[in-house]
């Protein structure tokens, strides 16, 4: 009889359950069995279990893609990983064969397997992943609460490779969720002169202020007006939409010659934009999607303490209480929630 384990399974729209499922087994030489320590809840996970669903996912899939754990078994073709080592998982499995992969755009792979959406992920006691998706932690004693942030941080690092930030820039971050707060830390480390954060939720506003950002609540004052005031009429050199669908807000506070980075994903959002407003002011608009060769640098930032995310992780729950984590996010009580997957 096969061993079983607990896992958070996406059953149907709005239906996430902790089920007893078969413990995964190594079936290919390059696979590694991991005992999961922790897995963070991403905004896309919230979108999967929302009604209506706002992110594609396959029913029956174990959710979770921001996770890390300890190697407990390796396939006979695995090199470079040993039992007992702690690793971080890079969740997006690319084919390496399509035109996107072969032209250096692996993050746009046409055959990508999205772990936690279509391929069993990390909200479980155990997970099997190809060794190509694992990164060994040089600091084997790093707190798991920090290590699980490697995936979202790697996505941000990927975006930083696409645009230019210079010391003294005025920056605007739209949204102070986990991604927005991480951006604040990285923009500070890059030499930003001022960072204005647009946010409505109290706990997020407080966290952004602790990180040294100037917080604007767009429900109570004009974001564009506030940015112009704080930048002495210049506008923002860099504007980052961490929410998705805030193109007009971004353009409204961007300086001539500035940059708008579209990071947040909202498939349902539509904006009416005047191309004239972009071309006339020579604004550079860039999209950024997931991870591309940025995991090692993200891990380095965490291990070397370049960035601190003490105010980002606000709640930790055990796997059995995962619904409490989702509820805390939905109710605006939490910023980043981490699930401990083993006792």
The level of helicity is 10-25%
Tally the helices: 11
Low-pLDDT runs of 5+ residues are none
Q: Can you count the beta strands?
A: 18
Radius of gyration: 20 Å
What is the mean predicted local confidence, pLDDT?
A: 95
Tell me the span between the first and last alpha carbons: 24 Å
* Multimeric state: single chain
Explain the layout of strands and helices:
Layout: E1 4-12, E2 15-22, E3 31-40, H1 43-48, E4 61-62, E5 66-74, E6 86-89, E7 92-93, H2 99-102, E8 113-114, E9 126-130, E10 134-136, H3 144-147, H4 150-160, E11 170-174, H5 178-189, E12 194-198, H6 202-210, E13 214-216, H7 223-230, E14 236-241, H8 247-253, E15 254-262, H9 275-279, E16 284-287, H10 295-303, E17 313-318, H11 322-330, E18 336-340
Parallel strand pairs: 11-12, 11-14, 12-13, 14-15, 15-16, 17-18
Antiparallel strand pairs: 1-2, 1-4, 3-5, 3-9, 3-18, 5-6, 6-10, 7-8
Helix pairs in contact: 4-10
Task: Walk me through the structure.
- This protein has 343 residues and is of the alpha/beta class.
- The protein has helices at residues 43-48, 99-102, 144-147, 150-160, 178-189, 202-210, 223-230, 247-253, 275-279, 295-303, 322-330, and strands at 4-12, 15-22, 31-40, 61-62, 66-74, 86-89, 92-93, 113-114, 126-130, 134-136, 170-174, 194-198, 214-216, 236-241, 254-262, 284-287, 313-318, 336-340.
- α4 (150-160) crosses α10.
- The mean pLDDT is 95.
